[in-house]
Structures are given as structure tokens and as C-alpha cells.
Amino acid sequence: MLLGICLRPTSSNATLHARYLHGGNLLSQEMGPQEESNNPSFWVRILCKQGQLAQAVDLLCGMHPPPSSRVCLFLLKACNHQRSLFEIRRIHAHVARYPILLTGSLADYLVMTLARCGALDDALHLFLALPSRTVYSWTAIMSAYTECGQGEDIRKLYLSMLDDCVEPDAYTFVCLFKACGCTRDLGLGKELHSEARKKGLTGDVYVGNTLMSMYGKCSALKEAEDVFKGLDSRNLVSHCVMLSTYVAQGEGGKALLFYRQMLDENINPDRLASMLALQACALLADNEASEAKEGESNSLSLLQIGQAIHADALRKGFTSDIYFNSALISMYGKVGSIMEAEQAFQVLSMRNIVTWNAMISACVDQGMGDEALWLYCCMQKERVCPDQLTLVFTFQACGIYKELIYLDIQSNSKACLEIGRALHMDACKRGVTMDAVLGSALLTMYGKCKALPEVDDTFLSLLERNIVVWNSVLTIYVEQGYNDKVLLLYRQLQEENIIPDELSFATCLQACAALVEKDAPNSMAQSDEHAGIFIGRSLHSDAWPRGSLVGLSLGNALLKFYTKCGLLSEAEQVFEVLSAPNLVSWNVILKAYVDNNQAERALQFFSHMEKQSVSYDQVTILYVMQACSITASIEVCKCMHFLITSTELEQVPLLATTTIHAYGCFASMADAQALLDGLPDPHVAPWNACISGHTGEGNHMLSFYFFEMLKLIGLMPNEVTFTSILSACSHSGLLIEALELFKSIDVDFGLLVDTKHMAIMVDLLGRLGNFARIYDMFGWIKAQADLSTFLCLLGACRVHGNLNLADQVFDAAVQFYPEEAPLYVLISNIHADAGHCNSIIQYRQHIPQQADELEYK
Q: Which keywords label this protein (predicted)?
């Protein structure tokens, strides 16, 4: 409106405007307040404020002689604000006619403005053309290079400045530290820090804040803390920079302690500080979830901290800020309070893509895939265009979308896949760039839907395939059991000159271990000749020179690989070189000793854990109790039982079950009974352990008593229950009872008869010589029996002289176990007992070499 009034077509204004354009010299006149409207500089300012930059520059270019540098500077700032490079170049061309203007602050600011608007070459040309370069000129060009993303040239500029005999000041060091932070050049940053310290500039709060920020970006947390402590004075910005550094480095705990320290020092947090504290809460909750800790109380405390920050923000009016609310929604989502996240989302009068992403992410974090997809639809109805991050979250939502009330599981899986395909197609139509992050999320979604053809097609179509993408596809195939393909992909990864990281090695080691475990029935599976072991060792050697063993995740992956392959000595060597083994590392070794029948070493290892003051968890106690069961170490068992009771862990069914089983192994069923009676909530597993314990003592009457009591208190027997009670029948020779129980597994309880049930029945029938029933079960025996069942049945045939059945059993067994020498020895002895010399020679000719150490007959 003001501009319209000023440019009314009156004769005086028209004349004045003509004089501006034709070089009327008004700047040399002394003007009073009433004559201000006649000043062309006044009109330049008015035009700038109205956003009419082109007209303002027209006015400037028509002024002869030119206005003061102050007017040019004002106009440059307006052009810089709108990033109008064309008008900046016009100003540059105009003032270049008057060398007197290209000095001082105007020249310095022109250098910086040209660079900020993308004309770095013009800025450098102007800088080099300056008649004299001051510290301000040098700082301007350094700042220009930094803002244009060319901070790597900052060292050369700094050395050139020193060669020009120009001493840097505080602002120069601020610019230098910013450049080091952008380029993550910690070495240069430390050198410059030392120089600034010598000049006494590091106590300056502005320099110190920038220095802290630089160290934070370079992941040098201790150095940032030292700078903070060394500041002569600190302002709120100093605290926010330090808080931001803690959050950026994943130190959520330290960030919250620092925030509490701010409050104790009566420093009033602003919106940014409160946002960072919320991010710290979310970070801690995220770390807790990824480490799978038993931490409900910790989650509760994080929620309470977040609620307190929220309440403080309400009093200060921060919640009207859309970005603060986004951080608030994310925090509530991470700590598991989805209802409060929804409330924070609903109160927003305006929502942008950041808030939508925060809410969708919160639902994904809590496994609410259907809710996340519904929010995505609502977002589109409100005409908010999704970005790449939105698509990442929605792809993740498809992967976790498992439950639809009106669909069965198979249809639900197909529905998830169709939704994912539709999202993928929508992203392609929008022209969304499929970068590594989005591509990885898409691959993972297809992998969870088991759509492996889509996984292959997507992987091949990605233009950017970095290590994150490769790790995604490796993980997908190892989860689907395609372990051979995982190793082929790893080879392809190397051929494409992609450097594998810890996750790559860990995934491939998992594939190798799975290949070995798959061939476990084969006696050669865990020999050094197995391909899985050979490749795993090669991966170990490949990782070592890269320094990857510094990472704990790879170290633990190697431990799991070697222990699953039964190579305990190599697992121990890996454990010894771990710089700081965590509880997972200790538990892997402990489990390996138990699984490989080295229970004594397991207890010794646990004793070593205690001496090292390693805090153990439920898993540790479980393995120790299993070791006690094997070694009959009742004293250790009672100590662990006391620990379980004192920490209220006896309510954990698995621990209670293992403890009862251990007491059963010690023939201390009174203690087992006392523990069972003390359990607050009945559970079938501890009852199974009691039944098994009495079976082990040979007291089948008590086994039957507990079996009946289990049913009377309303518990449903499971497959393990019947394994224990059938074992009691087998040990006592109770065939009729065993047959009735065996029949009731399917008929009365709707359970599946498994291999263990059949093996027990075969053993019982064989020992009793009831071969008629064994012939009835022979179809199962040929298809599913394991080696121990075959050997047991051959032993029964030998005892009862049933040569015909023995031959049939042997023929079935060698189909699965052709290299197992005991089979050949046993069938040979059976024929020897029957006096069949020719058969003996025939069988002994086929006996594998490892049978040489076995005794015949």
C-alpha cells in the first residue's frame, strides 16, 4: 500500500522518479526529515521491503554518482535473503564501476553473497581482485567455501591467509571449525583448536560453541565435553550444542543427565533443548528395544521423564510448534505409549509431512502395521504428499502387518503383499527416487512377505546398491533358509568391490552355521572338510585384516558360528581376543559347554564370570542350572535357586522348570515339590519337570499321580507331558497303560504324535518282544525314525532273535545313515548269532573305516 502511495502519478513524483532514473544527484544534499521521501536510498529500502528487488536494482543502477555502500549493503542483504543471483550480479556489475565501493564490508559481503547463491567462481574472482584482503575478506571467502560444501579446501585457504600476513580472529576460527565439522576433518580441527587456544580465543562462548559442534560432528565426544568445561561463560546455546552432541552420538543417558544438570543450575530450557531431551528419551527406548532387554521399569521411567518434559512444554507454549510436537509423538511412540502419541497428534491444528511421519513411525515401532497404513491413507486424503521417509515407514508397516480379523493367515499374507506392491507402484508413479534407504526398506518388505521374485527384481533394478542394500538382501535369504544363495551373493558383493561390514560377515556366518546344522545327521557334517566350516573360517580371515573384530557384533557372530559347528577351541580363541565381551558373548560360550556335554567347564566358566564381576541374566542362570543337572552339583544349584528366589525370577516358567528338573536329577524331589507348590500361577512346564523327575527316580506311581493332578487343576497336557509319562511306562514295562496313553495323545487331547513318542513306544515294544505292533508302526519307522531308534530296534531284534525284522530295519536305516558304523556292526552281530557266515562277510565288507575301533559280538 505504501509503495502505491509513493508512486502515484503526480507531477512532482513523476519528476522525482525521472530524476532517479536519469541520475539526479540527491545524496550530496543535506536533508531534513521532511525531505526523506526525496532520498533515492529511501525508495531502495521501500522497494526491498515490498519484495520488488528488480525495481530496487533498477533504481540503484540509475543513480550517478552511486549511493553509499550502506545502501548497496542493504540491497545485497535483501537479494541474499531471496537468493536472487541475477540481481546480485547486476549490483556487482554496477558497483564494480566505482572501485571505492569495492572495499571494506561491502566487498566482503558481496563475496559471501555470491557464494551463498551458488556463484562460487564469481566470489573467488572478486576476492582475488580485491586491492587489499583483510581478515574479514579471508573469513568471507572461507565462509563462502564452507557454505558451498567445499570445506575440504579450507586448509589451503587458511595457509594462504597466513602467507598473506593476515592474523585470524574469532570469527575466522568459527568459520574454520564449521568447515572441519562439515568435512569431519578431526585432525585439522584439533590443529586449529590448538592455534585458537594459543591466541586465547577458546574461552569465547561463540568460538567454544562452534568448536563443540565440530567435535560432535566428528564423533569426538570427550573433546566436546572438555571444551564445554573450559568455557569462561556458557549460554543456553552452549548447553543446546552439548545436548545435541550427546543425542547425535547415541548417548541418550548422558543427554538426560545433562538436561537434569541444566535444570539444577536454573538454566531454563528453550524449545530446542526440550526437543533434544525428548529425542534422548526416544533414543534410550530404541536402544532398549534393539538389545531386547527385560526393562519394563526403565521404559516406565522414560515415559515419566517424557511426560514431565511435555508438561513443562505445555506451560511454556512449545506445543504449538509443529516440530516440537513431532519429537513428542516420536518419543511417546518409542516408549510404548501410543495413546499419548495419538493425543499429541490429534491436538495439532496443522500437520505437515514431519508430523505425519512421526505418527506413522510411532505405529510401526509398536507393531501396529494396520494403523500405520490407515494413517498413510488419511495423510493422502488431506493432500499431504508422502516423502521418501513416509514410504520407508509404510513399507515397514506392510512387513509387520500380520493380523486382519476377517482374513485367514494365507489371505492376510497375500493382502500384505498386494498393499506393498501398490505402494511400490505409487512411489514409481510419483517419480520417487529409489535410493539405498528406500530400496532397503522395499526389499525387507518383500522379504517378510516371502515374495522372493520381487526381492530379486527390486535388487537388480536399484541404481544405488550400497552395503545397506546388500545386507538387506543377505538377511532376507538367510531368514528364508537359502543359505547357499547368501554365500553366492557375498561373492557377488566382493566382485562389485563393495566392502562388507560387520553385519555382512555376521549374516554370512549365520548361513555357514545353518549349512553345517542342516547336515548334522551326517557324521562328516562337523568335520573340517565341511564346506560351511571352510567358508566360515575364510570369512573370519577376511574380517580380521579389516579390523572388524573390534566390533562386538561380529565377534559374537563368530562365537555363535564356531559353537554351532562344535569347534569350541576356536570359539575360545575368538572370545579371548574380544576387547570387551558383553553378556551375549559370555552366554554363547556357556551354552556351548552345556550343549557339548562339558558341564564341568561350564560351571568353571561361570565361576570365572563371577570373578570378573560380569552381571548375568536369566539366560545365564538357565545354562548354569542345566550344567548343574548334568554334573549333579547340588550346592551350585541351591545357590542359583536362592538367587532366583531373591530376585523373584522363579515366576519365570522356564527358570522354574529348569530348577525343578535339576532337583530331579539330584533325586531331590522334595525340593522340586516345594518349588512347584510355591509357584503362584500354574503352568504346564514345571509340572512336566516334576513328572520327569519322578520318572527318573523310577517312581512311576508318583509320575502318574502328578499327571492326574495336572489335569485336575485345569492344565492341558502337551507333547512334553506325554514324553515323560510314556517314559515312566517304558521304564516300568507298563505296556497296556502306555498304549492307552499313546492313543489318547491324538484322540483325547488333539495333540500330534511326535518322533519321541514313537521312539519310546518302539523301545518298549522291542524290549517286550511285541513285534506284531512294531510291524504295524514300521511305515513310520522307515520314514521318520532317528539313528538311536534304529539302533534300539536292532538291539531288540538281536535279543529276541528276530532276523527278518532286523534286515528290514537295517535296510531302512542305511538309507538315512549310510556311514554310521554301529549299524553295520550290529547287523553283522545279529547274523553271527544266527550262524549266517556269508552274511557276516558281506556286511563287514561294507563297514566304514571308523568301525575298526568298535568291538564285534
A: Repeat
